[in-house]
Amino acid sequence: MGVRFPPCPFLKMRMMPNRWSSEQNKIVEDLFKQGKSFEEISIAVNNHIKKLDYDIFFERTPRSVVFKCMNLGLISSKELEDWDKIRKVKLSKYRFKDRDKVKKNVLERDNNSCVFCGSKEKLEFAHIIPFRMTKKNMELEGITLCYEHHRRYDEGDNELTKFIFGKMNLYYPEYSEFYKLEIVSCESHKEHAKIIQSPSSR
Ligand SMILES: [Zn+2]
Known about the structure:
Layout: E1 2-3, H1 22-33, H2 38-51, E2 56-57, H3 62-71, H4 77-92, H5 99-109, E3 123-127, H6 131-134, E4 142-146, H7 147-154, H8 158-171, H9 175-178, E5 179-185, E6 191-197
Antiparallel strand pairs: 1-2, 3-4, 5-6
Zinc ion binds next to β4 and α7.
């Protein structure tokens, strides 16, 4: 959804109806027949919407255009499914975005060795914060560990976790503004250290 300017309480807001107008449908149909991509079609529809005199309007996403094409009978439901599948693959590529560059920088920063034992064998790039939580590769969240210590870190080894937290604080003086070491005790009264993002930095 896009808002053209901040709502004024004294003016009546003109809000775009969420249903597709016949003009919007026609743009989709014409451009589809010209072989334009769904992304290109969504841009064209949005440009049309922005020219209309609405204070509050909804932008059409490429997926909503694909869905529209199916409703207009331009593509089959199978084609919609295929498009969704391809999109999923594209999204999963974010996992690899910047990964090689970040990995190289982290390795250099850590003197090409496991920060804990100094080993230069079987080195791995470890995500300090699990990747599934951050969805990004960055130097601040990566560290070089050997195979053995990577496993131990992922299993929640206390000593190793505290060591890594100390190490990151040495590298980056402002580290503890963004991350903190959380100590949790488990059922067997053993304390566990875990590095988490500070809630304020999210
Ligand atoms: Zn090691």
